[in-house]
Amino acid sequence: MVNEYRHFSELKKKMRLVVCAHNKLAKDDLSNDALAYVIRDGNACYKIYTSEFCGGHSFWMHEIGHILLGHLRFEDETNRQVFDRLMGTWQSFSKYISFKPKDENQTMLSLISLLKNYAMDMEVNSKVFDKDEEEFLLKDMNQAEFKRLAYISENRLAGWGDAKRRLERYSYQKHNNKKAILVTPVLAENYNFPRGLSWRQYIDLIILTPDLVMPQICEKLRAEQGQFIEKASKIPSEVIRKAAENQDVILAESLSSGSGDEIGVEKTCGKTRSFAIHKLGPEVRTFITERAVDKIDDTRADYLYLANRGKADGVLRGKSVEHSDYSAGNVFVIVDTSGSVSRERLAQLLELFSEIRGSVGEESKVIFWDSDLQRIDSLSQGINEIPVGGDTEIASAIQYTASRFCGENDKLFIISDYYDYLDKWLSEVKKLRCSCYGICWTENRHEASYMNEEDFYAFCKEVETLFVKL
């Protein structure tokens, strides 16, 4: 069976009773539009839009499913129904997304629309496609998405940088795992829900299990929905317990959660100082100073000092003169300027490095980087205004800094939110000749954020990191 769906003929027959037009999406709109969607135009007419990259019957059948299952009807009424259901558990959902208090109502309405789309996709994908046909849907989606991203990247349409990064990461994953994918359809079984339910039943299941569904939804939307920002998928206590079980990190301090609770964990073989998240203050200053400033006692006594230099008798007299030939190591600071934190708060953190510029090497530098080099400032001469960046690709910054500056006595600091490809970071860090330290900023003091759990633990095992709330 080559993408010949069992229900295809049945759907075509039912569509004879529906007024529907099929349209192609313009290529130049690919950065803003989905690969396929359907709208209701008037009371009874529907318009299905698909990209020319969409091969096979998968996308067409999916959009037909939305029409035949009545998903585009009575939108205002269904929104009110979901709103009433969501009100009772809103706090369980809101903790996963970031918004300003004044925007709370609009955020809730946006989330309602999002959850409805997920629930309706679950219904369509479990009723239109049989279980053994989901591989066809997955194949068609990934082929279309690959072509879309390639076209955006090659023609430098809006969002081409992100499209390029997604393709590069996909290529990297594909090299290690032949089953790697770019996108996945919304399937009920992926959320541990039964197949074949109505979208309203799926909404009820989602509302009953927000902590099961929301982390997956946030992860899926991280690059797709800018207004839905995942605060974190794990709280520190869970991270700490898992890290302790895996013997991945050193945990020497209790959480700064305000509760006063301490989690006793023995020190292990890793290098991360603590998962305690500090405010920008004395702890951070101490962390930087202790690691950036050398504590080498290289003074010694010289007993052949000519004490009576310039006197007539020319008698040599021993005298102890302490001096040192040691030169302080340089400090190189890579700063992630992708915009995850305000320039004002980042400037406060960099000021802590400015305080020690007299105690480190004169060649110390601050390297501002997003997906490429933005600027290099001399630490001794002072830091200029912090630039504003875009995408993030810090592995190339580590490679750049190591190849041009870092010597054995130097120190490298990485300041970022760690939302990047940490496996690539680690690969570059292992090539360094100097010591490396991390300062990971997080917007929520109770949560440590990271993109990939396995890569996160591996990096923290190698690089001593302090978590800071800016």
Mean pLDDT: 75
Number of distinct beta strands? 10
Helix coverage percent of residues? 25-40%
Distance between the termini: 56 Å
Briefly note the structural class of the backbone.
Answer: alpha/beta
Could you tell me the radius of gyration in angstroms? 29 Å
- Largest beta sheet: what is the strand line-up? 4-10-9-8-5-6-7
Q: Give the SSE string.
A: HEEEHHHHHHHHHEHEHEEHEHEHE
Assess the beta-strand content as a share of residues.
Answer: 5-15%
Major sheet: size, sense and barrel closure? 7 strands, mixed
| Poorly predicted parts | 222-269, 298-321
Count of runs of 4 or more consecutive helical residues: 15
Principal-axes geometry comes out as elongated
Please summarize what this structure is.
With 470 residues, the protein is α/β, with parallel strands linked by helices. The protein has 15 helices and ten strands.
Give a written overview of the molecule:
- The protein is elongated.
- The model is unreliable at 222-269 and 298-321 (pLDDT under 50).
- It is of the alpha/beta class and 470 residues long.
- The relative contact order is 0.09.
- The protein is 39% helix and 12% strand.
Keywords:
470 residues, alpha/beta, seven-stranded mixed beta sheet, three-stranded mixed beta sheet, 15 helices
Topology, pairings included?
Elements (H helix, E strand, L loop, with lengths): L7 H8 L3 E6 L11 E6 L3 E6 L7 H11 L6 H13 L2 H5 L9 H24 L6 H21 L5 H17 L22 H10 L1 H12 L14 H11 L30 E3 L2 H11 L38 E6 L6 H12 L10 E5 L3 E6 L15 H11 L6 E6 L5 H8 L5 E8 L10 H10 L1 E6 L1
Parallel strand pairs: 1-3, 4-10, 5-6, 5-8, 8-9, 9-10
Antiparallel strand pairs: 2-3, 6-7
Helix pairs in contact: 1-2, 3-5, 5-8, 6-7, 13-14, 14-15
